[in-house]
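User: Sequence in, structure out. Go.
Assistant: Echoing your sequence, followed by the structure tokens.
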Amino acid sequence: MTGRYRVTVAIGGRTVLRGWWGSEATARRKWTRWVGEHGDQPGARITLTDEETGATLTEWPDAP
């Protein structure tokens, strides 16, 4: 891990992409990009997590 903020793309419960960034702003831009690139896949879930606190900052689709 090289950064505090992790973006994960899972499709059908399987992680297919993951990246870490030190800047929350950069990680949010990547999250938005990956939602656009992978969000139309059946069963896709894209999350942005603060690794320091363990908090999920945002996810797509929205949690029920």
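User: And one key feature?
Assistant: The two ends are 29 Å apart (CA to CA).
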